Protein: 1,3-beta-glucanosyltransferase
Organism: Elaphomyces granulatus
Amino acid sequence: MSGYSFPSVVALCYWLLVGLYGAKVFAVISPISAVGSKFFHDNGQQYYVKGIAYQLTANDPLVDTEQCKLDAALMEELGANAIRVYHVDPNSDHDGCMEAFADAGVYVFVDLDTFTTEISEDNPHWNVTQFNGYKKVLDVFQGYENTAGVFVGNEVLTTSKGFGAAPYIKAAARDIKAYRESKGYRKIPVGYSAADIASLRPMLQNYMACSKNSSENLDFFSLNAYEWCGRSSFTLSGYSMLAVNATGYTIPIFFSETGCNTNPPRDFMDQTAILGPSMEDTWSGAVIYEWIQETNDYGLVSYGPYDPEASPTIAFVEDGYTRRGTPTPVYPDFDNLKSRWATLKPSGVALADYSAFATELTPPPCPAPTSDGWDLDAESPLPSLGQSLTMESTTTASSATETGTEPTERAGPVTGGASRISIMGPANVDGVSTLMMLLAGTVGVLCWWL
């Protein structure tokens, strides 16, 4: 052994490992890979999303470490293993919150767009300003081992006539994936969260995965769906058709929002279908809308009584709702979901048994135009950076704009029935992981010798 002091050796080894993996060193949390249409833990066990939509404040809910610790602890009790966050500030410090959720076994799906960089249905465009904004968010969250995936858009298409925006979503995914590769980042999946528009289903879903060039396809597709309301069923809700439409799909698909509340209290029976025998072979879980109780009455917890007279100058009160403090479960919804999830433990398929099958999957056919909404030439080239949609047709022209449109603050589900793991791609699971383990072992031997 050398004559180095023990503290100096510990510090050296810590920074060697941080530099080696290029990620924040928090809790030991199993990395997950996307293989074919499924997610897998690194031990080969299939991963299913049991998530919660989490947006305490409009700009960024991942900056208050103590609040995240309180919420993460209750989410762990609930049985959640993921959250979905709609907006973050890439200039803020997220270390504390990401560590808190990692400690609780909770992964994070995060949207890359901001209020000024989102892709617009009314004026579709994809320009340098948007791309730079997306890159800033990815630059930050790629470093966290529990980043599960990123969205390039949320409900961009909100009507059957919005199909013209679809190529811009796909172009954004293409460019973000290329940027991810150029930076040597982990293969964190890049996906889209779609509004549930019957006249675009399953055309939009298939369009997002139909390119022969995989670099132009999404890494995952997700749906905001509120069709299962009250005492519904697998057939009556339309979920049976969602399962059929996902059969043979080549990328993971899951519900990025669900949890209809038109017939309270919510019993979350839809989870039995999603995470049970009816859909576990085709779908990869669901995100429940939402964590905090607000006017729309979807919340699973509250932080205090509603006070419409509360001063907006109080930092942790917005729209009369307290957004900080000890989370108190909203009953019986919280317990109903907790009990439902506790009974649902899909085992899925082992990676060793599935990987060969995954290599045989072929992209779905690109959708042909229909008479009731979808009117896009799916074989046309994707827009290049700086192009926008001409209003006369679905072709693109060089008329880039430099800012997005300013949306109103999201108040809850707006479509459907009522209205972000260290991901490593299949090619990395064996080769790169093995190399990293060998390098880590070398560092370990060096540290032992010191």
